[in-house]
Specification:
Elements (H helix, E strand, L loop, with lengths): L6 H20 L8 E8 L5 E8 L5 H22 L7 E6 L1 H22 L1
Parallel strand pairs: 2-3
Antiparallel strand pairs: 1-2
Helix pairs in contact: 1-2
Length: 119
């Protein structure tokens, strides 16, 4: 997620993250039960926005991504009704790279600790 130099885009990112997070919480899809919307990165022209998400169990990322992709049209419609904008951005859902990277580091550390225990 990048930090935008445009205050308007930064504000919109925060609003979109909040609204989308509430919408995901309301959904009844069990694949979305433990999904957290971690951030939004709208492009400066506001035509597209990448929505970053995470799950409690990283093994569930793929299922959550499929559920979010299936719900994208509904989420976009609701965003349009709740956020006053000229144009509603196309939404693209991606796993949060910071969370995925942290999990990889943690896995390496667990592996190293397990190696120390064997010695």
């Amino acid at each position: 997620m990048s930090e935008h130099p445009y205050p308007r885009v930064r504000r919109l990112n925060a609003i979109l993250r909040e609204v989308i997070a509430e919408l995901v919480e309301e959904m009844k899809d069990p694949r979305l039960a433990l999904v957290t919307i971690t951030g939004v990165d709208a492009k400066p022209d506001l035509r597209r926005a990448v929505v970053y998400y995470s799950t409690v169990d990283l093994d569930d990322l793929e299922d959550a991504g499929a559920a979010l992709a299936a719900a994208t049209p509904r989420i976009r419609r609701r965003v349009g009704s709740e956020v006053r904008m000229k144009r509603i951005p196309e939404l693209e859902f991606r796993p949060d790279p910071a969370v995925v990277g942290a999990e990889r580091i943690e896995a390496v550390l667990r592996h190293l600790r397990a190696g120390d225990d064997d010695s």
